[in-house]
């Protein structure tokens, strides 16, 4: 049905309610009702209704005075309550606890500084839902001080929730660079952010075997990985009450010095990996041969240099391919750069052994390929060649790594030890990229 308005020359138009029907091969109009007594405005409204069009646009019915986001706030706070997050922070409700919950929720919903957070309450229902809409910046910093005093209690609750005797524990150290000069922990050290010349603050993350955080420790920026490890062992056994535990760390974290201490501690087993020098020695002694690897690309063996330990050699073909490709591109780039230096020496624009050495050193250090090149520098000449034997020896180790562990076979199979170490690597990667996925987490 539709409204048909038929104009009349000397009288008002006829307003007819009609429908179209087929009569044989023809389509004819059939009048259902004469609505000529209606005004044109009324006829137009009926026409809109018959077409399924709204009579009034929804936005024309309301004046939007204010709006706040609520759905994401409600969903997140409900999830936090189900996880027992509020009771984890403090068993009793308080303004400080609600402010901490709000800051964590805000970090998830819309990461921003504490000052910006305190000024954005009106954009969502987070503040009024938690009853802290009158909170200011200083209140947030005071809540953080209150939270810091509760850190030990909270971490013990987390350990009780996530760790049990004999569990697998992961530990890794990362860092953030510091802007400013007033931070007492800010020291010049290894920059994982590749921010040379910046002060650093290190932080160690202790997690369960799944990578779920349990404890966080902060150290001066010049603290090495290995020196932070043993205090974590003490914390796990003494503060968290775990008499037996399996600790996993990379070769830089668990050094030989730490292993000597761990061997004397009852209830502590460990998983780490050999450094490339030790792997090279095992390959030279034929203790590791590619023919020994099974279909899983691993095999277990023992060696006199590592008494009482289980050694598990692993070969990763994809990693081997990646390292070969990377090395080839770096050798090519270094060769091209050294060729330019060689041309400068031949033209006489670069003279003197010291100046030539400085220029070539800059190139070698940029690509970190010094071990693969033989250099011959005099006052007026410069020549170089790729050390094929050095390249071959490094290529023999491509994709090869050896995991070492104190775990007995009845506690863990070789395959499980490899999986445990890979979990540590995954946790390490997540820890390293944590700041990069959220630019608000650094600099400090």
What does this molecule look like?
Strand 9 and strand 10 (310-315) form a beta hairpin. The protein is an alpha+beta fold and 444 residues long. The protein has four domains: 2-56, no CATH class; 71-149, no CATH class; 153-316 and 399-441, Alpha-Beta Complex (Transposase Inhibitor Protein From Tn5, Chain A, domain 1), CATH 3.90.350; 319-396. The mean pLDDT is 86. The protein has 16 helices and 13 strands. The radius of gyration is 36 Å and the shape is extended. Helix 5 crosses helix 8.
Choose one word for the global shape: extended
| Total domain count | 4
Order of helices and strands: EEEHHHHHHHHHEEEHEHEHEEHHEEHEH
Provide the helix percentage. 40-55%
Can you tell me the CATH topology of the largest domain? Transposase Inhibitor Protein From Tn5, Chain A, domain 1
Top-tier CATH class of the largest domain: Alpha Beta
Quick overview of this protein structure:
With 444 residues, this protein is α+β, with helices and mostly antiparallel strands. Helices cover 42% and strands 20% of the residues. The chain has an eight-stranded mixed β-sheet, sandwiched between helices.
Index terms:
Transposase Inhibitor Protein From Tn5, Chain A, domain 1, eight-stranded mixed sheet, 16 helices, 444 residues
């Amino acid at each position: 049905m539709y409204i048909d308005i038929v104009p009349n020359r000397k009288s008002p138009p006829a307003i007819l309610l009609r429908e179209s029907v087929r009569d044989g091969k023809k389509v004819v109009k059939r009048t259902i009702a004469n609505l000529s007594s209606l005004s044109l405005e009324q006829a137009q409204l009926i026409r809109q209704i018959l077409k399924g069009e709204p009579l009034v646009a929804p936005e024309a019915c309301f004046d939007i005075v204010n709006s706040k986001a609520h759905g994401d706030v409600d969903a997140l706070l409900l999830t936090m309550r189900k996880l027992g997050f509020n009771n984890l922070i403090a068993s009793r409700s308080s303004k400080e606890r609600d402010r901490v919950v709000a800051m964590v929720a805000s970090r998830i919903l819309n990461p921003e500084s504490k000052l910006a957070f305190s000024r954005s309450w009106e954009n969502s229902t987070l503040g009024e839902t938690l009853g802290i809409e009158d909170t200011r910046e200083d209140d947030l910093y005071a809540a953080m001080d209150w939270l810091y005093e509760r850190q030990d209690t909270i971490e013990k609750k987390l350990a009780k929730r996530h760790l049990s005797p004999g569990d697998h524990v992961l530990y890794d150290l990362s860092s953030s660079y510091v802007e400013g000069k007033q931070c007492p922990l800010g020291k010049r050290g290894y920059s994982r952010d590749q921010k040379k010349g910046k002060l650093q603050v290190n932080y160690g993350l202790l997690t369960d075997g799944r990578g779920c955080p349990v404890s966080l420790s902060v150290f001066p920026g010049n603290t090495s990985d290995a020196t932070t490890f043993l205090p974590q062992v003490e914390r796990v056994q003494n503060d968290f009450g775990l008499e037996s535990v399996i600790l996993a760390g990379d070769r830089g974290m668990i050094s030989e010095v730490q292993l000597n201490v761990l061997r004397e501690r009852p209830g502590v087993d460990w998983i780490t990996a050999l450094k490339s020098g030790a792997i090279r020695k095992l390959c030279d002694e034929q203790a590791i041969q590619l023919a020994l690897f099974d279909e899983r690309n691993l095999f277990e063996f023992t060696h006199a240099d590592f008494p009482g330990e289980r050694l598990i050699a692993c070969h990763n073909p994809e990693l081997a391919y990646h390292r070969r490709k990377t090395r080839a591109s770096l050798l090519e780039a270094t060769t091209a750069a050294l060729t330019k230096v060689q041309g400068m020496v031949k033209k006489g624009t670069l003279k003197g052994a010291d100046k030539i050495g400085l220029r070539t050193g800059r190139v070698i250090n940029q690509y970190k390929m010094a071990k693969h090149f033989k250099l011959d520098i005099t006052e007026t000449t410069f020549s170089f060649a790729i050390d094929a034997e050095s390249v071959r020896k490094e290529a023999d180790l491509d994709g090869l790594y050896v995991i070492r562990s104190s775990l007995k076979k009845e506690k863990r199979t070789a395959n499980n030890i490899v999986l445990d170490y890979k979990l540590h690597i995954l946790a390490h990667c997540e820890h390293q990229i944590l700041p990069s996925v959220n630019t608000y987490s650094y600099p400090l």
